[in-house]
Automatic annotation (TrEMBL):
Domain DUF402: 28-156
Stored SUPFAM superfamilies: FomD-like
Stored Pfam families: DUF402
Protein name: DUF402 domain-containing protein
InterPro entries per record: DUF402, FomD-like_sf, UCP012622
Top-level taxon in the UniProt lineage: Bacteria
Length: 172
């Protein structure tokens, strides 16, 4: 076991305005969105990025599962060994506007190989510094473990697990 070394940071929040075709990222930047797709079980977003490590982002907000599944389209030389990146959090809709509150834990899915939980240290720091309460942390842990079990039971195929759960995601 290694010591907790994460720097405390507030819960990352984002806003997804379907009508305006914008996404306000965690740093407050308003990003133009190429495509939003609203389904009864979630919201799809596709947009360009000016991040140095990736040039395009696709995400599904899945409120009932408390997950956000993403594909990062990395720039050359910044590729990562991952197929899907999954944030654990709270996602809600208010009309045409959706909101996300990241609860620190992330899952890295390498289809057909494994699913890894990351940022446990960030969750611990968030609880010990009062950024989130114990009940929120417990829900985040339960959510992450349930997702890992489900994804693993489907051969570490996130999309297959989501289809079975009634959220048949599709990507560009």
């Amino acid at each position: 076991m290694h010591p907790v070394s994460a720097t405390p940071h507030p819960v990352k929040t984002e806003t997804f305005d379907v009508a305006a075709k914008t996404n306000i990222d965690p740093k407050g930047f308003v990003r133009a969105v190429d495509e939003y797709r609203v389904e009864e079980w979630g919201l799809y977003m596709a947009r360009p990025s000016d991040h140095p490590q990736f040039h395009y982002l696709e995400s599904w907000l899945l409120p009932d599962l408390r997950l956000r599944a993403s594909i990062f389209h990395f720039t050359p030389g910044n590729e990562r060994d991952q197929d899907r990146y999954v944030d654990v959090g709270e996602f809600r809709r208010d009309g045409d506007v959706w909101y996300s509150h990241d609860h620190y834990l992330d899952l890295i899915v390498r289809t057909g190989r494994d699913t890894v939980v990351e940022d446990i240290d960030e969750l611990v720091v968030a609880v010990t510094t009062g950024m989130i309460g114990a009940a929120v942390a417990e829900t985040a842990i339960d959510t992450a473990l349930r997702a890992v079990d489900g994804i693993a039971a489907h051969g570490h195929d996130l999309d297959a697990w989501l289809r079975e759960r009634g959220a048949p995601v599709s990507w560009r």
